[in-house]
Amino acid sequence: MDKQRDFVLRTIEERGIKFIRLWFTDVVGTLKSVAIAPAEVEGAFTEGLGFDGSAIEGLTRTFESDLLAHPDPTTFQTLPWRGDVDPTARMFCDITTPDGQPAVADPRNVLKRTLEKAADRGFTFYTHPEIEFYLLKSSKYGENGPEPVDSAGYFDNVPGGTAHDFRRRSVRMLEDLGISVEFSHHEAGPGQNEIDLRYADALTTADNIMTFRTVIKEVAIEQGVYATFMPKPFSDHPGSGMHTHMSLFEGDANAFFEAGAQYQLSKVGRQFIAGLLKHAPEITAVTNQFVNSYKRLWGGDEAPSIVCWGHNNRSALIRVPLYKPNKGQSARIEYRAIDSAANPYLSYSLMLAAGLKGIEEGYELPEEAEDNVWSLSDTERRALGYHQLPASLDHAIQYLEESELVAETLGEQVFNYVLMNKRKEWREYRTQVTPFELRNNLEIL
């Protein structure tokens, strides 16, 4: 770590960095930033930077508000969108109390704790997100709602189009930040795009997602458009998900791979899926944390709302992708419910905890879904033993309230804050009178 700190200090001097932004997130997953001068960096490394934690959503209570942000030197990167004018860099921070203890409500620390539990069992957790978002002409909207930048569709090539130039610029900027991109393409909705990040350990991935959102927003501003990660901005177009591929490794060996097993999926892999399936309803208030998230889950367009798994079945909540011959290291599963607005630190903590619970308790994996579950009736689904994800944020809160797994994984303070925050959002949502009600009821009642 000392070598890494020396590298950071040397780089700041050699590149003439003028500002260093210290980044962390609140419990909702909003990025927070404070800029310090180069002369303050060494002190931040040794002592941390003090701030009022009670002013940050869910981070601490007023009577214990003093917190310290400790920059992680391994996350140091210059910010390419700043250019040569006042060059700026960033580092993610770990949050502690004044006595040096990890802040219990720091989302990054929640993920670190969960990863340590996995490490105690010999596992490293890797993730690979496919992040969808919409490009709009503006953040403003009129009677017809938001206006997308194009009318293109899935995998469409739009020569000279806004989205084409946007993705090229974004990918180049992400690569400059050390974030490897696997794919980028136009998605199914007008103005909808997807960029897939390469596999990395879950903490690196979560940091990369927070950086990714900032890059996308910055490039949009640069190009005179607006980017949104809102789960469902259009009622008649697909929502934006963040399908996440995941696997556990034991050393250099993929713990999900077993040669000769069905779908080359090991017992550990099957138990991990079983854990995710069993606890999926409980974690949905975190992986799909907004009222609007449920418009995506239940709005059709291939969103996963039924708790089941399948081999390469895109209608299932959990998909086991096609096995690549001679590539056992690529064995993985894909969780399809999580949306692009989730807090990645808390979501990945809960997804990992649910899978580990399946391994610890030896959960049995139910039969796979071979049919398109979207085409089945409710009666047929019940007959097959398929349950549903929560139908609304209110429904998800009810599952969350009763979940020992979520309470244990998040810790008491984060758990209570998430509950309080989501209850408040639901109260505010259910008291509104919507255009739908006025349109359908005002004149005839």
Automatic annotation (TrEMBL):
Gene3D superfamilies, sorted: Glutamine synthetase, N-terminal domain, Glutamine synthetase/guanido kinase, catalytic domain
Signal peptide span: none
Domain GS catalytic: 107-445
MF (Gene Ontology): glutamine synthetase activity
Names of required cofactors: Mg(2+)
Keywords, comma-separated and alphabetical: ATP-binding, Ligase, Magnesium, Metal-binding, Nucleotide-binding
SMART domains for the chain: Gln-synt_C
Family: Belongs to the glutamine synthetase family.
NCBIfam families in the cross-refs: GlnA
Protein name in the entry: Type I glutamate--ammonia ligase
Source organism: Luethyella okanaganae
Gene, per the UniProt record: glnA
